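Weekly sync, protein design subgroup
Attendees: M.S., D.O., the rotation student, P.L. (late)

Item 1: inverse folding check
M.S. brought a backbone from last month's batch and wanted to see whether the design step gives back something sensible before we order anything. D.O. pointed out we never logged the input encoding, so this time it goes straight into the notes. Structure tokens as presented (471 positions):
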């Protein structure tokens, strides 16, 4: 476990990744002797990363750094005292040549509060010294040869004042610690001569704890790692009713696109409304925006509640509460048949569902319970500020609201306890366009709405999912 708690208003994350070849020969089946050989191999790797053959290459740039000793780099403009953030000047964009020219676009301090510099871990193959003739020998014996590639992945957070020398020292320290953690995980989960590949993951904890790197054994499900997570919760003094260290909680770096194509948390680019003595209460965590016409499914005109339900399911999946993927329309319909709410002919139909059905599906597929709030007419929603604010404070889950023939997702409220003023943060599943964040926010498909947004005479049911108390 490696902790990097350094933080600043405008920080740069240095992320070092690369393979380290792990090879050892086991001449004995004795468990203790095998563990000693494996430990010696890890010790050798730790010595390697501290040697002069260790090289760091800044991705998409001509910058190469020898981090050990006096810290040497090319191009020669980069010295040990060069600020880390200056490395951005050398990183190439897609449009530019890769001939070593400085990027014309310097990092804008206003563009993002967090930026990432990716580095590649490499080892020099050639070594200095006299060339000697090879000596060949042949030994006949039974042995077991272990060979695998360790996926090293270290991160540190730097401020604008940190130099390259300081950053390299911290990166090598993190690399060494990660090898120690990998050794512990490898030995702990070793079965005979079979090793499980150690898997480093990064988690962003509440400040001031910052980024934490944890090594898990690949292939071992989260359900079998509860004891390790419990130790981590105790070590970092985290509550034991909310997951922080499940694989789904792993930190998503800002420069990496999501592979599934869905937008995450579009509301984060919006400016909250200002109310007299008002406070803003928002969904906690990450969700995907699900809306009409996605997944090659034409549900325009009937699938809004399905899409709202999918957004809710994505929240539970991405917070690590469940491992099940987001259900399809057909799977949602089959779940309602399975609980006896619908006839078998419902599967494959284009029939609407409402808040009560959303509650049933969440329970059937995810084991999630929900509260239902009944509102006899839309005008009454303006008086539900306290209940909605409390929900986002305590549960933090998206809310599905259905009324008339429409369904929406409520992601938060701005509410003034003194004046009663209220605004609702709405995610609209009726959107049919592309995953264009600017269009979605500029056109109000994700935006703050006043009480007039609701049909004042229609009745509404709200499904308020309750998060499980697990770690």
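Designed sequence read out in the meeting:
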């Amino acid at each position: 476990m490696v902790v990097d708690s350094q933080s600043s208003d405008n920080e740069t994350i240095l992320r070092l990744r690369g393979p380290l070849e792990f090879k050892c020969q086991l001449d004995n089946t004795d468990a203790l002797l095998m563990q000693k050989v494996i430990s010696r191999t890890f010790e050798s790797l730790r010595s390697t990363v501290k040697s002069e053959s260790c090289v760091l290459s800044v991705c998409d740039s001509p910058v190469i750094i020898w981090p050990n000793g006096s810290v040497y780099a090319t191009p020669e403009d980069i010295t040990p005292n060069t600020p880390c953030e200056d490395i951005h000047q050398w990183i190439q964009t897609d449009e530019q040549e890769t001939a070593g020219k400085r990027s014309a676009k310097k990092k804008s301090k206003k563009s993002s509060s967090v930026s990432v510099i990716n580095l590649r871990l490499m080892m020099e193959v050639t070594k200095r010294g006299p060339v000697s003739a090879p000596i060949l020998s042949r030994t006949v014996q039974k042995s077991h040869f272990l060979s695998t590639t360790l996926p090293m992945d270290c991160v540190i957070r730097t401020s604008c004042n940190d130099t390259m020398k300081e950053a390299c020292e911290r990166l090598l320290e993190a690399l060494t610690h990660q090898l120690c953690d990998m050794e512990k995980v490898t030995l702990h989960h070793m079965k005979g001569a079979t090793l499980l590949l150690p898997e480093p993951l990064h988690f962003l904890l509440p400040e001031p704890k910052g980024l934490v790197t944890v090594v898990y054994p690949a292939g071992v499900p989260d359900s079998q790692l509860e004891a390790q997570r419990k130790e981590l919760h105790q070590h970092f003094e985290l509550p034991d009713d909310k997951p922080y260290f499940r694989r789904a909680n792993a930190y998503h770096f800002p420069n990496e696109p999501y592979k599934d194509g869905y937008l995450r948390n579009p509301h984060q680019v919006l400016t909250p409304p200002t109310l007299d003595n008002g406070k803003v209460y928002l969904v906690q965590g990450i969700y995907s925006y699900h809306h009409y016409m996605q997944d090659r499914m034409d549900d325009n005109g009937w699938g809004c509640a399905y899409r709202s339900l999918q957004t809710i399911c994505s929240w539970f999946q991405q917070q690590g509460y469940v491992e099940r993927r987001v259900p399809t329309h057909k799977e949602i319909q089959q779940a309602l048949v399975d609980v006896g709410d619908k006839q078998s002919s419902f599967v494959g139909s284009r029939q609407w569902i409402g808040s009560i059905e959303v509650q049933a599906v969440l329970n059937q597929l995810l084991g999630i319970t929900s509260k239902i709030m009944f509102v006899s007419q839309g005008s009454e929603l303006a008086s539900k500020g306290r209940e909605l604010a409390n929900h986002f404070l305590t549960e933090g889950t998206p809310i599905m609201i259905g009324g008339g023939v429409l369904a929406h997702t409520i992601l938060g409220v701005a509410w003034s306890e003194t004046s009663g003023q209220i605004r609702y943060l709405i995610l609209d599943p009726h959107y049919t366009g592309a995953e264009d964040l600017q269009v979605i926010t500029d056109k109000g498909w994700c935006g703050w709405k006043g009480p007039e947004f609701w049909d004042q005479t229609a009745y509404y049911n709200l499904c308020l999912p309750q998060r499980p108390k697990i770690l």
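Discussion: DSSP finds eight helices and 16 strands in the chain. The first helix runs from residue 31 to 49.
Action: P.L. to compare against the previous round before Friday.
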